Amino acid sequence: MNDTKKSQLIRYLKTHRRGITGQEALINLGLYRLSGEIHQLRKAGYNIVTSMEETEDKNGNKVTFARYYLHSKEKK
What we know:
Helices cover 41% and strands 36% of the residues. By secondary structure, the protein is of the alpha+beta class. A 3-stranded antiparallel beta sheet has the order 1-3-2.
């Protein structure tokens, strides 16, 4: 991930307490593979927590997705 995308994602996580999902990352930041970006941030020392959530799609099927939160404003 380039530094611009990395800084945009970190800023988003710091300013959005509800965290971010893959869909939100695509729409708001243009990130296609959020889990990979989160992995890189964790390797860099950021304390990011994953919460698995469920919803239903338009056909009533159960859909599970990850929501990522910055646990604290500081690196580990």
